[in-house]
Amino acid sequence: MKMIPHLRPLLLACLAAFSTIQAQQPAGTQAEPTPEQQAAELKKLNEMVESFGWTRQGKGNIGGMAEIAIPQGYRFTDGKGAKKMLEFYGNPPSDRYLGMLATENFQEHSIIFEFDDIGYVKDDEKNDLDADELLSTMRESQEAANEQRKKMGLDELEIMGWAVPPRFNDQTKNLEWAIILKSKGDGSTNINHNTRLLGRKGVMEVTLMCSPEELQGLLPGYQKILEGFSYIQGERYAEYQSGDKIAEYGLTALVAGGGAYALAKSGLLGKLGLFFAKLGKAAILLVVGVLVAIKKLFSKLFGFRQSE
Question: How far apart, in whole angstroms, are the C-alpha atoms of residue 129 and residue 138?
Fold first, then answer.
């Protein structure tokens, strides 16, 4: 899940920043935007967002392989709309976005659905998820990711520990875990809560990003929304058939980051940077770090608890 701010505070924050810059420039340059100009820009912004295509009732179609019930007060857009919305807010481009479920005014959280077609993931490791070993592996992966972050001019991130240790729900076939990330730049911390919804041909990935203080308050509503998720007939985990593609790794590697976990176990983790652009799952910690930085920036600009 990526945090998407309310549209009006975003525009006003941008206009305020623009005005501050203008005020620092020599006399005779452009003046502060007028209320009329601000209203016109807000209208353009709203029209652009609406053009991404939204459904506000019924069910949202997630890539033709799954559905999500649209709760009251929410809106849903498909993969194309989700990609445009996320790129508009500065997120890395990706062709893996299959849909976005957001509150009507983007006042609170937004849920992003992505699919990894790695094949059928066997659940034979469900009782053997070693939280300590996984945490150690993820920290090694983050060290490699930090080398890339430094090249991009981003703060390094440190994995502080588990907010929710890895756990598997055998009834829903959902895997979930949450890690605490700390920025080495300003010392701020964020929670990255992950859910993996196992299907016949791969895994639907859902991420909730929030502060440590927000997690417990957000989780009940977030998990209630996910109860409205379902794979369509033919795509369900229970519909596996002999001959279907089998994933090359299991539940442990899903938590650790797939390719990153394989590298760590083989002793090649130090070469992660060389393969970073090619190993989609190995890149996950860097992408998470970028999104944390974006959420932190939005929080500083205008906050997430705006009153209507």
Answer: 14
As a whole number, mean pLDDT of residues 210-226 equals 87
For residue 250, the enclosing domain spans 1-308
- The mean pLDDT of 213-229, rounded to a whole number, is 89
Task: Kindly give the residue spans of alpha helices, DSSP state H, lying in the chain.
Answer: 7-23, 35-50, 79-88, 131-151, 215-226, 251-256, 259-266, 272-275, 284-302
Give 242: exposed, middle or buried? Use CB within 10 Å, 0-12, 13-18, 19+: exposed
For residues 4 and 299, is the Cβ–Cβ distance under 8 A? no
For the chain, the domain total comes to 1
- Residues pairing with 230 in the sheet: 67
pLDDT digits (tens, 9 = 90+) for 148-173: 878 877 788 899 999 999 999 998 89
Rounded (10°) angle between helices 79-88 and 35-50: 150
Report which of 188, 189, 197 is spatially closest to residue 223, judged by C-alpha positions.
Answer: 197
DSSP element (H, E) containing 163: strand 157-169
Q: How far apart are CA 67 and CA 172, in angstroms?
A: 15
Comparing CA positions, the residue from 246, 206, 235 lying closest to residue 115 is 206
Q: Is the pLDDT of residue 271 over 70?
A: no
How many Å apart are CA 158 and CA 144, to the nearest integer?
11
Q: How far apart are CA 160 and CA 162, in angstroms?
A: 7
- Count the neighbouring beta carbons within 10 Å of the beta carbon of residue 216: 11
Q: What mean pLDDT is reported for the chain? A: 74
Residue 137 CA: distances (Å) to CA of 130, 262, 290: 11, 10, 20
Please state, in angstroms and as integers, the Cα–Cα distance from residue 284 to each residue in 23, 29, 83, 234, 252, following that order: 41, 44, 17, 28, 15
Query: Nearest to residue 212, comparing CAs of 240, 182, 177?
Result: 182
